[in-house]
């Protein structure tokens, strides 16, 4: 069982590969890190919640403003067991142009309660993007 470790949250065997992750790269190249940071199982454990992550009311409450992320954390490929019957949610849309934003993929900005897609963000912050217009 070389290069394997057990997850702290659920005790599953997983690749011991966190050394492959480059800090602040946001890469998803570490199985161990992905499970710990991008699943409800890992979130539940890291937040110190009690009981089972599948029925944890604290976990659900933590994501009440971004239910889309709760569903993503519970159903993505980094899970050993996926959330059964995940709740339905309305897609997140750009506050300016209405384009659907997939929160788990990034490429958006927030300002207060507003979400801006990459193209609309470029309008507000042209120095960061070279001044492109929306959806070019």
Question: How would you describe what is shown here?
Answer:
This protein has 136 residues and is an alpha+beta fold. The chain folds into two domains: 4-75, no CATH class; 92-129. It has helices at 31-38, 40-46, 57-62, 67-75, 118-124, 126-129, and strands at residues 4-6, 13-15, 92-93, 100-101, 108-111, 114-117. A hairpin with a 6-residue loop joins strand 3 (92-93) and strand 4 (100-101). Helix 1 (31-38) crosses helix 2 (40-46). The chain is globular, with a radius of gyration of 18 Å. The relative contact order is 0.10.
User: Which residue ranges are poorly predicted, with pLDDT under 50 across at least 5 consecutive positions?
Assistant: 128-136
Structural class: alpha+beta
Q: Quick check: average pLDDT?
A: 88
**Percentage of residues in helical conformation:** 25-40%
* Rg calc: 18 Å
Main sheet strand line-up: 1-2
Overall number of structural domains: 2
**Topology as a string of helices (H) and strands (E):** EEHHHHEEEEHH
- Residues in β-strands, percent: 5-15%
Using the alpha-carbon principal axes, give the shape: globular
Query: How many strand elements?
Result: 6
> What is the CA–CA distance across the termini?
50 Å
Number of helices: 6
Largest sheet: 2 strands, antiparallel
């Amino acid at each position: 069982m070389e290069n394997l470790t057990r997850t702290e949250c659920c005790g599953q065997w997983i690749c011991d590969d966190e050394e492959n992750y480059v800090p602040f790269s946001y890469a998803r190249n570490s199985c161990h890190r992905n499970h710990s940071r991008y699943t409800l199982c890992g979130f539940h454990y890291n937040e110190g919640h009690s009981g089972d992550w599948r029925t944890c009311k604290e976990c659900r409450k933590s994501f009440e403003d971004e239910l889309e992320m709760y569903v993503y954390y519970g159903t993505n490929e980094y899970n050993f067991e996926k959330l059964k019957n995940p709740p339905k949610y309305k897609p997140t849309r750009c506050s300016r142009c209405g384009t659907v934003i997939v929160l788990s993929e990034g490429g958006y900005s927030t300002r207060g309660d507003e979400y801006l897609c990459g193209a609309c963000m470029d309008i507000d912050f042209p120095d960061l993007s070279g001044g492109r217009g929306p959806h070019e």
